[in-house]
Write a structure and sequence with these properties.
mainly beta; Lipocalin; elongated
C-alpha cells in the first residue's frame, strides 16, 4: 500500500512539474517603428581644456529573443539570476551617426566624414552587438521602475570584436514593448580606432580615447502568425 501511495505521489509531482518545464515558447522582440523608438548619444573629450564633442544617432535595428520567465510585464514577479535571453543582429549604421552640438543641432559634415573614415565605414558599415549573457541583478522597487541587469556581449567596431560588460535597465511598456537603456564607456583604441586630430583656429585638437555611449532602444513583441483559415 505504501509503495502504491509513493508511486502515485511521485506521478502526481511529475505531472505538476511538466507545465513548468514547458512554460511556453520563446518570444521575439524587434525594433519598434517610429522616430522616438531608439536614441544613441556619444560623448567624448579632447586635449584642449573644456572641449567636448558629441555624436548622435536615432536608429538601432535588430531583435532580442527571451525565454520563459523573462519580466515582460510591469511589476512582474521574477527571481534574480541568469535570464534565458538571446540578442542577434543588433546593429547601428555608421553613416547614421552625426556630429552635433550639445543641444543636438547638427555640427559639421566635415566632422562626420572624418568620423566615418576613422570608423572604416566604407569597409565596415555597421557597428554590431551580440548579447551573450544577461543576469537580473534586482527587481524594481516600483511598478513603473525598470528591471536592473548585468550584461555581457560582443561589440564589433571597425571590424574588431571585443567583449563588453555593462549594466542594462529594461522597462516593460504597454503594447508589448520593452525599453532597453545603458551607458557603457568604451576605449576606441581597443577597437584600433585612432584619435581624431584637427586644427581649429590654429589650435591642434586631438580627441580622447575613452567615450561614453548612452543608448535607448525600444523593441516590440513580434506578432504571432495567424492560423490558416479552415477550408
Amino acid at each position: 500500500m505504501k509503495i502504491r501511495t509513493l508511486i502515485a505521489g511521485s506521478f502526481a509531482l511529475l505531472m505538476a512539474a511538466l507545465p513548468l518545464q514547458a512554460a511556453g515558447p520563446n518570444v521575439i522582440y524587434t525594433s519598434a517603428p517610429g522616430t522616438n523608438s531608439s536614441k544613441i548619444w556619444i560623448e567624448g573629450t579632447a586635449n584642449v581644456i573644456h572641449t567636448t564633442w558629441y555624436v548622435k544617432g536615432i536608429t538601432i535595428a535588430g531583435m532580442i529573443e527571451v525565454g520563459p520567465g523573462f519580466p515582460a510585464e510591469p511589476g512582474q514577479a521574477v527571481t534574480p539570476g541568469k535570464m534565458d535571453v538571446q540578442a542577434t543582429n543588433v546593429f547601428i549604421r555608421v553613416r547614421n551617426l552625426k556630429s552635433v552640438e550639445k543641444d543636438g543641432r547638427l555640427y559639421s559634415d566635415h566632422m562626420d566624414n572624418v568620423m566615418y573614415e576613422h570608423l572604416k565605414a566604407d569597409t565596415y558599415p555597421m557597428i554590431t552587438y551580440r548579447l551573450t549573457e544577461l543576469t537580473l541583478k534586482e527587481a524594481p522597487k516600483a511598478k513603473d521602475a525598470p528591471y536592473v541587469f548585468d550584461s555581457t556581449g560582443m561589440l564589433t567596431v571597425g571590424g574588431v570584436t571585443k567583449s563588453i560588460s555593462m549594466p542594462v535597465n529594461i522597462l516593460p511598456l504597454e503594447g508589448n514593448k520593452l525599453k532597453i537603456t545603458g551607458s557603457p564607456r568604451i576605449k576606441m583604441s581597443d577597437y584600433k580606432v585612432g584619435p581624431v586630430e584637427l586644427a581649429v583656429a590654429g589650435v591642434g585638437i586631438k580627441s580622447g580615447d575613452e567615450v561614453k555611449l548612452d543608448f535607448e532602444w525600444t523593441v516590440r513583441q513580434r506578432a504571432l502568425p495567424r492560423p490558416a483559415a479552415s477550408k
